[in-house]
Design brief:
eight-stranded mixed sheet; 11 helices; alpha/beta; about 300 residues; single chain; elongated; two-stranded antiparallel ribbon
């Protein structure tokens, strides 16, 4: 058995296609397929269900994929720890984040890469359920988002700060002169919101419903930036995370107004697979956060001008 065979196996589990998996591993399709067949012969089991294309994994194959993911994580942890012992942390941090957390990510990623110049970071914006799944399958290393939605005993969490919700309105809106509005007042204006399939939208719908309010947004989009563009045109308003206030000047001709009656707060934090030893890259994130004296002010400080 070779680690490369396990890399091929994990790639196939992610891509669900022999050709795509081979391309991601920089190997020919026949090379990947033959390596997996050799692994099947060595272990005496059928791993992959084949016809002319990938059909899935056998029960033994699915279990082997889980072990392969663990083995590769342990390999990466070993390499990161050795690089850290040499005085320079190397590695690739895979981060999954809820779309609403986009304004706060530079507070983490910029500081982290300045401290560890040999570190690279990739960011995917995903639904919280998909972040949880990928963490448990070792496809990403750390998540950022609402801690109340994580929901797994296998995942460890760390609070960053508490955030409220706001209503992003056009500057020409009559509401723009106010500092706060009620949810019932927000229900009266033309709204554009995230799709109902997204967790952030479900939270918003639940708050409106608890007040006996049934809303019907005229526009739905799966991007906060796209929603903000609609608000900037002056016809719509949207419910948005309060920490978007930190991005000064990001959405001209708009204003974020606090939502009250009730005031809703969400815990924003990081989360990761609860495994020992801790991945050195995650340890580096912890070390950075431990040195922040006032987390609330540090995370909510403006990051643009």
């Amino acid at each position: 058995m070779f680690l490369r065979q396990f890399e091929y196996l994990v790639a196939l589990s992610e891509k669900r296609h022999f050709g795509h998996a081979a391309a991601s591993c920089n190997v020919s399709q026949s090379g990947l397929s033959n390596a997996i067949r050799q692994l099947e012969d060595e272990l005496g089991i059928t791993i992959v269900l084949r016809d002319r294309k990938f059909l899935g994994f056998t029960d033994e194959g699915r279990r082997l994929v889980e072990w392969a993911q663990r083995l590769l994580v342990d390999r990466d942890t070993m390499l990161q720890e050795l690089s850290h012992m040499r005085g320079a942390l190397h590695g690739h941090l895979r981060l999954g984040a809820m779309p609403s957390s986009s304004p706060i990510l530079p507070h983490l990623t910029s500081k982290l890469t300045r401290r560890h110049p040999n570190l690279t970071i990739s960011i995917q914006f995903l639904a919280i359920g998909e972040i949880r799944r990928q963490i448990l399958n070792f496809e990403i290393d750390i998540g950022v988002g609402y801690l109340s939605l994580v929901g797994s005993q296998q995942i460890a969490m760390r609070l960053l700060y508490n955030d409220d919700m706001g209503l992003l309105v056009p500057r020409r809106s009559p509401l723009a002169d106010l500092d706060t509005v009620s949810w019932s007042e927000a229900a009266e204006v033309p709204l554009c919101l995230l799709p109902r399939t997204m967790e952030e939208r479900r939270i918003v719908d639940s708050v409106f419903a608890a007040q006996g309010l049934h809303i019907k947004p005229r526009i739905e989009a799966d991007s906060f930036v796209n929603l903000a563009f609609h608000v900037m045109q002056g016809d719509y308003s949207t419910v948005i995370a309060g920490h978007f206030r930190t991005v000064l000047g990001a959405f001209p001709n708009t204003k974020i107004i606090g939502l009250k009656s009730p005031r809703i707060q969400q815990q924003i934090g990081i989360f990761w697979f609860d495994k020992k030893p801790l991945l050195p890259l995650i340890g580096a994130v912890h070390d950075l956060l431990n040195e922040i004296d006032d987390v609330q002010n540090a995370w909510l400080a403006p990051i643009g001008g």
